[in-house]
Design a protein that fits this description.
Length: 158
C-alpha cells in the first residue's frame, strides 16, 4: 500500500510538471521587431496607471521593452461656459514622461506578457485649479534602437 501511494504521488508530480501551463508563449525581442504595435489594456486617469501589450508584425508579444514616450492630456468638461475674455480658446494641460538611454522618469514593468507604467509625479492640479480637469487622454510611443511604434492616443474606458 505504501509503495502504491508513493507511485501515485510520483505520477501526479510528473504529470503536473509536464503540463502545458508551464510552457510560455513565444515572444520577440524588441530589437528584432520591425513593427511595434501598442494595445492599451488599462488606463486609470487619476494615477496615470497604464497597462499595455506590445505586438510585432506577426502579432507575437514583444519582450524587453524599456524606452518610451508617454504624454498625459487633461481637458475641462465639454462645453464649459466662462466669462473670461479668452475662454473661447480650448485649453488643456499636458504632462510628458519618457525613458531613454540617458534618463528614465519611471521604468516600464513587464508583467505576464504586457507592460505597466504608473508615473511617480503625475499631478493633474499642478497647472490648473483642483477638479478643473475632467476629461483625459494619453499618448503612448514605444521605441527600440531601430524602430518605434506609432504615437497612439487612448481615452479611459467610459
Amino acid at each position: 500500500m505504501k509503495y502504491l501511494l508513493l507511485g501515485i504521488c510520483a505520477g501526479v508530480m510528473l504529470t503536473a510538471c509536464n503540463s502545458d501551463s508551464d510552457q510560455h508563449a513565444p515572444t520577440t525581442d524588441i530589437e528584432a521587431a520591425s513593427v511595434i504595435t501598442v494595445e492599451m489594456l488599462e488606463f486609470e486617469p487619476s494615477s496615470g496607471h497604464l497597462a499595455f501589450a506590445l505586438k510585432d508584425e506577426q502579432g507575437v508579444t514583444i519582450s524587453n521593452a524599456q524606452h518610451y514616450r508617454v504624454y498625459y492630456f487633461g481637458y475641462p468638461k465639454e462645453k464649459v461656459v466662462s466669462g473670461r475674455a479668452k475662454a473661447w480658446r480650448k485649453w488643456h494641460v499636458s504632462y510628458p514622461f519618457h525613458c531613454d538611454a540617458n534618463e528614465c522618469d519611471t521604468p516600464l514593468i513587464a508583467v505576464d506578457g504586457h507592460y505597466q507604467l504608473t508615473p511617480k509625479s503625475l499631478d493633474w492640479a499642478a497647472d490648473v485649479r483642483a477638479g478643473a480637469v475632467e476629461r483625459y487622454q494619453v499618448a503612448v510611443q514605444v521605441l527600440s534602437s531601430t524602430t518605434h511604434s506609432e504615437v497612439v492616443m487612448f481615452k479611459p474606458p467610459a
